[in-house]
Amino acid sequence: MNAVLNELWPYFLMILVGYLPNEVWRVFGLILARGLNEESEVVVWSRAVATAILAGVIAKLVLFSTGALAAVPLPIRILATAVGFIVFLGAKRSVFAGVFAGEVALLLGAFLFAG
Amino acid sequence: MRVWPVAAPRTLWDTWVPAMSAPAAFSSSSAAFLAGLKTALTSVFALVLAGTYIGIGALTHDFGLSSWWLAISTALVWAAPAQVILITTLTSGAALFEIALAVTLSAVRLFPMVVALMPVLRGPTTRLRDLLLPTHFTAVSMWVESLRLLPRIAHQWRIPFCNGMSCGYMTTAVVFGFVGFYLAAGLPALLAGGLLFLTPMSFLMSTARNARMMVDRLGLVFGLVIGPLLTVLDVGLDLMWTGIVGGTLAYVIHRAREAMT
Q: Residue A75: inside a domain, yes or no?
């Protein structure tokens, strides 16, 4: 019995402190979105807020990296981001081209200057 | 009659078929679902998700959770940032309340995403229960692609198309979570760093590509600046404030510009 409980415990925690606190925002959104249309001001504002939060996450991932990415020096991470974005703009806003260029810049930089 | 009007990206290089004048239609819901599935599996986001979840799979292995735990959390939580928080805190002895708070803060962004997506999905005859699945599926990749592709599809096919696309993304994430989990032991540090870099890169560029209106571009720029600033200043609930301050600022400027013209 105890062994079964120990097996299931991480799944129980996943639902309690992972699934529920995450899903609640989706459900709120569904409830609040009723009766709104694509052009309504609340939707435009909501999109701006979501975009800003996402941008905040992006900037934090690059500037305050964790794990293996933290081993790459900060100037290289910033430079690689800039290279990726410039290629993205130059290649008719191709996400693939931009991500690829950014990755190459990061790996090259890390290999040459940090290795 | 063969109906295949949805302009699925023809190559990974994101060549885009110019917007059609008439909205795309399908012969049945399953045709729309399959077209969505195909769109997902051939889009650059499938590649990005694969990379992201290889990284998360490796992380899961390192923190001593099982590969099936990851697969189920991908299906249930379906948000990479929340999953990363969960994986890194669950076994670290952090208080459960603290973990739940961190997860819920990382998930605030889902709220405005759902609010912005629902009006695009909903047609005149849509029932609430039809929207439950797309609501659960809402995540960055699906959201960005839905806002881009759904307006070109006739209303009645949007939900099955969206569900098909989401299933494609979720399956990709689950499969590559397993791949990363079992690669973990042999992954060199440099490549692991490169994998972790995939997430900010792809999020940045997909958001930038989707930001066609000035208000969205401003939101992006303000978020990039305010987010790290609040972190440096050690402001609590920094992501929530980044969104509210950055997004509202962008919205106010957008309204002021509209009022002037």
A: yes
